[in-house]
Amino acid sequence: MTARGYLKSVIYTAPECCDDFPFHLPALSNLNELIFDQPITFFVGENGTGKSTIMELLAELMGMNLEGGSRNQLFSTYEESNALVEACRPVRYPNHPKDYYFYRAESFYNLMTDIERTGSTAFEGSLHQFSRGESFYELLSNRFFGKGIYLLDEPETGLSLSTHLKVMVLLKELADDNAQFIIATHSPILLFFPKAKIYEFTEDGISEKALEKTKLYQEWAMIFERKNHFFEKLFAE
Length: 237
Hints:
Blueprint: E1 7-12, E2 33-35, E3 40-45, H1 51-61, E4 88-92, E5 99-104, H2 108-117, H3 132-143, E6 148-153, H4 161-176, E7 180-184, E8 197-202, E9 205-208, H5 215-225, H6 227-234
Parallel strand pairs: 3-7, 3-8, 5-6, 6-7
Antiparallel strand pairs: 1-2, 1-4, 8-9
């Protein structure tokens, strides 16, 4: 177990009534505790299984802006209320992070605008001048300092294969500098990060999985290994 992390676990106590959002989500059906004992933890699973809801929960528990950014980013375009926070308790390592950041792909445009508005000196020019993948790489390489906790929700959006690999190198460097990452992703490439913990979200709840046992890995492997058969079946009348 690493002693370098900041968030050790989140303990969930289900309320008596579990019919309303978000308590009806599959992710919560078997959840008692999520343990974060590696520098990098991945959430994988189909759309709608609760990954982003849990990411928002972690952001709120750690005092971050729900639309993204550092604790200094206070912009809001939509008032969100996460009732799940009241049912959860964070357990922290003794270490205190020196940096906090929440990246979520769906609101990154608004975050880039707020960064420009506040006159951040971390970037030369506007992040809007880059492509989507380039702007995320610029954010990661120029704003993430290490010795902090970083939540990334679908960081692969817009990344080419080569940029994926460059991102993985940066993640390794930051993890070596006592950074903790929790990442929700649909990218099979990122999951190859050595010794990362992987939680898979399914209709049956959340479970820890080895890379090769995840549905994401198995489906991509099947497509590449049996591509002709797969697409014949997919487009069959």
